[in-house]
Amino acid sequence: MLDSALAQVDPETSQIMRDELERQQTTLMMIPSENYASRAVMRAMGSVFTNKYAEGYIGNRYYNGCENYDRIESLAIERAKEVFHCEHVNVQVHTGSQANMATYYALLELGDRTLAMSVDQGGHLTHGKKQNFSGQFYEAHFYSVDPDTHLIDYDQVLEKAKEVRPKLILAGASAYPRIIDFQIFREIADEVGAYLMADIAHIVGLVAAGSHPDPVPYADVVTSTTHKTLRGPRGAIITCKQELASRIDAAVFPGVQAGPLMQIVAAKAVCFKEAQSFGFREYQRQIIRNCQALGQSLIEEGFEPVTGGTDNHLLLIDLTNKDITGREAADLLDAAGIVCNKNLVPYDKRSAVETSGIRPGTPAVTTRGMREEQMYQIGKWMAEVIHKGRDGQSTMPFEGIEEASATSGTHEGHDSGSVVSRIRAEVADLCAQFPIYLDLGD
Ligand SMILES: *Cc1c(COP(=O)(O)O)cnc(C)c1O
Question: pLDDT by residue (tens digit) across 98-110?
């Protein structure tokens, strides 16, 4: 009904939305930070809660008429506390980046030292990158992964912490395929008298389901998105120890935000309810099993996952041995209906624009109901596209390298066109077997 209202008022927007629905239905969404929110979550996002200002917190709003906003925010908070076993939670914070900004704002003075995983090795923009507020307003220092194993080297983190004496240590990443040990991070933070902040934007669903160690007992503050593995609305939360509660809340509002997005808060309440179901725990386990199956399939094809595999929902594939950049590979895969992103690998020799890696993940395809068998097939398709899709010549080292570089990576070679378009059709077939949002779009 709402959809037909949109079509009448604004056919252009309606058409673009239909096209996007079709893209999401007929391609494999393998960007590990993306997912399909449920109908219930989307219903709450597109609700009357969008119409009201609710500046302030429960029982203390600036505007009148907020009874139902107090109720929905209380419900979201109560459920978030059940899911994360935390002492305090802020559900108003708009995005993962703003959650991090508010946390820095609450705990640090301008120019204070921070220590986080370096951004080109798997950390996030908001963990101290130069172009970001976190690199501009604070003195950002970084730990790196071990040059051989590509695992976090906790001894090096400790060494760095002793040398830098940061006020805040940040544990968490956007492109790290292994378990993060928050307990060791706590010990390191205690040793140098730093706050410990955990950013679980990517792994939050795994944490909620008990499939990844929980930072809440160890970290002073935990920030997270709600739209990645948690499968809720595009948004975020901050949990913290009780003694930091008023500082965190004040940093969010009035620190960095004014009116909360209460339709999103309502949708967060829905997603926290979904996260308490047995099905959700099973879903998170399947994400990991699927990711490991995809990794196995790619390893058989001669691909090299960073750290040799994965413990979570994503793989970081180093394409250095395949004579193709991450950018080219991601573009080819996209043309074949397998949408994943290019990514720097640790100690990458290429630029952030080109990169040497891709970062496929399994949250969204697992939401569609796909399992190991399908992941295995997707791995074979990815291999075929990367090996043969570029120009019809093999891109394996020592096989046809001259021809490969002579034809400059267009999709025009007849073989490449046929490989990519054949797999594009097979991908569409597979997607049709695992339908999603069947009842949307009319
Ligand atoms: C995605 C992500 C964020 C930022 O989330 P946005 O909602 O896009 O602002 C922050 N930290 C990490 C580790 C992330 O992966």
Answer: 999 999 999 999 9
Of all protein residues, whose CA lies closest to atom 2 belonging to ligand 1?
A: 201
Task: List, in sequence order, every beta strand (DSSP E) within 76-123.
Answer: 88-90, 113-117
Q: What is the pLDDT of residues 270-299, one digit of tens each?
A: 999 999 999 999 999 999 999 999 999 999
Amino acid at 273: K
Per-residue pLDDT, 190: 98
Q: Give the residue, out of 93, 104, 174, 223, with the most ligand 1 atoms within 8 A of its beta carbon, to mutate for a pocket test.
A: 174
Of 207, 138, 139, 148, whose CA–CA distance to 172 is shortest? 207
* CA 263 to chain CA centroid, nearest Å: 22
Task: Choose one of 232, 250, 275: the last residue of a domain.
Answer: 275
Residue by residue, what is the 3-state secondary structure of 279-348? HHHHHHHHHHHHHHHHHHHHHHCCCEEHHHCCCCCECCEECHHHCCCHHHHHHHHHHCCEECCEECCCCC
Indicate if 191 and 284 belong to the same structural domain.
no
List alpha helices for 137-277, DSSP H.
Answer: 154-164, 182-192, 204-208, 245-250, 262-275
Question: Is 124 touching ligand 1 by the criterion CB < 6 Å?
Answer: yes
Q: Is residue 263 domain-shared with residue 299, that is, in the same domain?
A: no
In the chain, the largest separation of any two C-alpha atoms, in whole Å, equals 72
Residue 79 lies in a domain: yes
Ligand 1 centroid–CA 419 distance in Å is 35
Question: 120 CB contacts (<8 Å, ≥6 apart)?
Answer: 344, 346, 348, 352
Do 142 and 211 belong together in one domain? yes
Q: How far is the CA of 97 from the centre of ligand 1 (A)?
A: 6
Strands in 236-240's sheet, in edge-to-edge order, are 88-90, 236-240, 221-225, 195-199, 168-171, 113-117, 139-143
Q: Ligand 1: which residue has its CA nearest to atom 6?
A: 96
Of ligand 1's listed atoms, the one at least distance from the Cα of 94 is 7
Q: State the Cα–Cα distance between residues 333 and 366, nearest whole angstrom.
A: 19
Task: Kindly state whether residue 23 falls inside one of the protein's structural domains.
Answer: no
Q: Could you tell me if 192 and 295 lie in one domain?
A: no
Point out the ligand 1 atom lying closest to the alpha carbon of residue 127: 11
Our answer on whether the CB atom of 97 is closer than 6 Å to any ligand 1 atom is: yes
Asked if 341 and 358 touch (Cβ cutoff 8 Å), the reply is yes
Q: Look at residue 2 in the predicted model and tell me its pLDDT.
A: 57
Domain of residue 360: give its range: 279-433
